[in-house]
Amino acid sequence: MTTFALNNLWAYLQGLSLSQSDREWLANKLIMPKEKETELSAEERKARFLRLAGSWSETEEGEEYYQMMKHRNDERPLNREIILDD
Predict the structure, then answer these.
(1) Is 84 helix (H, G, I), strand (E, B) or coil?
(2) What is the pLDDT of residues 9-67, one digit of tens each?
(3) Rounded to whole angstroms, how far apart are CA atoms 4 and 1?
(4) In this structure, which of 19, 21, 42, 48 has its CB flanked by the most CB atoms within 10 Å?
């Protein structure tokens, strides 16, 4: 968020009539550490993808599409090591 947006948010929060318990709840939400997402195994990731693929998940094309999406970044320049000291 930009400083301008944060200042607007702060002004909005100051304008609310919050009870003490509401203020404590808001404070706890603001200082609460962000929950870390657990890393999915390759098998879980594939199962989730195929569940989203719907009827494709039962076909050979679904498996091909999964493999294509899994390796879509392999050939992109940003994923290659670039040596500048030649």
Answers:
(1) coil
(2) 889 988 989 899 998 988 888 887 777 777 888 888 888 877 877 776 777 877 887 78
(3) 8
(4) 48
Which residue in the block uniquely carries the two structure tokens 């599409």? Answer: 65
56 C-beta neighbours (distance < 10 Å), count: 15
Task: Tell me the angle at which helices 60-70 and 42-53 cross, rounded to the nearest 10 degrees.
Answer: 130
Among 55, 78, 53, 80, which Cα is nearest to 68's? 53
**Phi, psi torsion values for 56, nearest 5 degrees:** -65, -25
Is the alpha carbon torsion for 54, 60, 64, 67 positive or negative? positive
